[in-house]
Amino acid sequence: MESKKKAIILVNVGTPDKPEVKSVRKFLTRFLNDRRVIDLPWLAQKLLVNLIIIPFRAKNSTRLYKQLWTSEGSPILLHLNSLSSKLQTLLGSQYQVFPAMRYGNPSLKKVLEEIQDESFTALVVFPLFPQYASSTTGTIAAYVMRSMRKWPVIPEVLFMGQFYDHPAFLKAFSRRIKTYRPEDFEHVIFSYHGLPLQHIDRVHPLVSNAQCACTKEMPVHGKNCYKASCYHTSRLLAHEIGMKTDGYSIAFQSRLSKNWLTPFTDETIIALAKKGVKKLLVIAPSFVADCLETTVELGIDYARLFKKHGGETLVMVESLNDDDLWVQAVAEMVK
User: Fold this and answer.
1) Domains and CATH numbers, the chain
2) I need a labelling partner for 193 at 20 to 30 A (CA). Which of 5, 15, 230, 329 fits?
């Protein structure tokens, strides 16, 4: 059988198969035991993850996933499948698009096995994370390279790196934001998934994270720094939609400890509410698909937190998901 010219793998983090404790525990075990996610010494990581974090988080995470789940299943998986299907239609028969999850199903392992069996001449690996982090884009690239070591024939392999500043991504995300009329809100928060400070400091060890000027401009040493790219993403999107610098804040969510990137989103929301802000728009540009962190954490839990401290309305901007302009942007980037 004649092979396709190129295989494209669209990869996201993952999801439990079901919103049940057993399935959630299995997902968390795979995810949190990744050395690029929690990079403590091996024994310390195993003890912390398997004896403390997972036993205490499994039930609570299951409760959150039950809030997220739809009659059709996990939203992040539904969005991934729809994006892949639309991209396949747009690119045509010269490509074959595979949806995959780094942890969970459809598994990246099985997708790579299928690609090996069909002998594609080229492979494009597209981690769906606008900003590079070792725990997202990095772990996917490492896994693919590790998996392909024993292939008798290794095709040309291309890895999509961070794309937060790609014009097509900015066009798609800014259009989505504009549909919410940010000018009608008193303030806007750009909320990004947090990372441990040690992850940030390892990228540019000669410059302290606390003393870095990346909150104002992109420094020379900030090209691969997650914090720097998050701040620059906000500046670029704010420019695209004509937002003034005093009209928005940048914050980080989903922390596991105090030694993570600050300011924290929940604390920023509380502070704004206490200052008298009544109408708040929240944008999450580190996510291209809605998931637990956007729909439940930001859209439900933080909306409740905002009202508790005096706010009235918190609106969460829907992510790109399978938006047609986003599909076109992905096609442009993989070509």
Assistant:
1) 6-163+324-334 (3.40.50.1400), 167-316 (3.40.50.1400)
2) 329
CA distance 335 to 330: 9
Torsion 63-69-75-78 (CA) sign: positive
Contact 193, 254 (CB under 8 A): yes
Looking at residue 1, its pLDDT comes to 43
Token pair of 209 as six digits? 């994270």
Order of strands, sheet of 279-283, starting from the edge strand that comes earlier in the sequence: 248-253, 187-193, 279-283, 313-316
pLDDT at 211: 85
Q: Please state the length of the chain.
A: 335
Helix axes 226-241, 167-178, angle to 10 degrees: 60
Of 250, 142, 236, nearest to 191 by C-alpha is 250
- Are 66 and 296 in contact by the 8 Å Cβ rule? The answer is no
What letters, b where the CB count within 10 A reaches 16 and e where it falls short, cover 47-86?
A: eebeeebbeebbeebbebbeebeeeeebbbbbbbbbbbeb
Question: Each residue of 226-281: pLDDT tens digit?
Answer: 999 999 999 999 999 999 888 999 999 999 889 999 999 999 999 999 999 999 99
Amino acid identity at 31: F
- CB–CB of 99/84 below 8 Å? yes
Alpha carbon dihedral 127, 131, 136, 140, in 10-degree steps, equals: 40
Contacts of 169 (CB under 8 A, 6+ apart): 130, 163, 329, 333
